Automatic annotation (TrEMBL):
Lineage: Bacteria, Bacillati, Bacillota, Bacilli, Lactobacillales
Name used for this protein in its record: Flavodoxin-like domain-containing protein
InterPro entries: Flavoprotein-like_sf
Gene3D superfamilies the UniProt entry points to: 3.40.50.360
Domain of life: Bacteria
Length: 148
């Protein structure tokens, strides 16, 4: 079986140079679309201490959390039982958010990444994810830029 897991941030975000409020984050929208199109369940990756709605406060915290393993809430599916995992995440500060750090238990036989980014390098983000998961086979990367 296959599942979609994703880390996303709702609240304020920067769109075309303006701070706007989103009820649901861009990566969450994309995850739900993929899940619906492929008939797979979707599960969020939630930070144990939620990120604030404020764009500026989230920016400050995400910078402090860069390169750090951020505590997460339990994911509502046993990922060890899954053959394929579709993993969605934004790129923050040129790398993975700490909630999606590859030291996690996101283990499956293969994974497909879909990444929401503004000007970041998809190859660097996926390499960062895979570096600590040598047993995992990356099937495909998909990039969604900006607020698309």
């Amino acid at each position: 079986m296959a599942v979609v897991i994703y880390f996303s941030h709702g609240g304020e975000t920067l769109i075309n140079g303006e701070i706007k409020k989103l009820d649901i984050g861009n990566t969450a929208k994309l995850a739900q679309l993929i899940g619906k199109q492929l008939g797979m369940p979707t599960f969020p990756i939630l930070a144990a201490i939620p990120y604030p709605d404020s764009y500026d406060q989230t920016l400050q915290r995400s910078k402090l959390d860069a390169e750090k393993l951020v505590a997460i809430q339990p994911i509502a599916v046993d990922l060890r039982a899954e053959r394929d995992i579709y993993i969605g995440f934004p790129v923050w500060w040129g790398t993975l958010p700490g909630a999606v750090d590859s030291r996690r238990r996101f283990l499956a036989k293969s994974s497909t990444h879909f990444v929401h980014m503004r000007g970041a390098d998809l190859a660097i983000a996926s390499k960062s994810f895979m570096s600590s998961s040598p047993m995992q086979r990356l099937r495909k990367n998909y990039r969604c830029a900006g607020h698309e």
